[in-house]
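Question (not urgent): is this output format expected?
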Amino acid sequence: MYLDHITIIFMEPCTTGHGRIKIRAQLSHNIDDLLPYLNAVIKTANYNPKVPSFSYKTGNHIITVQGDTLSATQMENESDAYEFLEQFQIMVNDTADNQKHITPLNNQRKRLKPFELYRYLPKTNCKSCGEATCMAFAIKLVNNSQKLDRCSLLKERETLSTYQQLASILTESGYDLY
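Got this back:
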């Protein structure tokens, strides 16, 4: 087993989440060597090989790993924190077990900016995606809280090539389209 255990060493209320907690945990050993593989597995991760550090968002939680330390925010309660850590340990061990089948991603992904995506949107503010404006839709695309296929105007025949370009940009940056 690559990661034997994770121990919570610090827990306190989040300053940004009413009633939520943040934690710091000690991993059974340094996992820096596995970070490029986790970067390939977690498509929206932010990996900085120079530090090295690794962060990603899952649900409301922001997770940061550096060496043998993990920090996590926006946990509902202590039970939620332990459940998350158990899932994280499983993911790390599965990634370690499957390393030979994973091509490591050793560089930092380009972080998309809403205006970069907005350029490709129809700019009609039609609201068919459920957002008030195309810019709001672009912001939610970057935050991964909205999916590209929700923009019905982009899927029309005359804008299909634009949809495909935008889909390619999102995919290359690790975003799920659906």
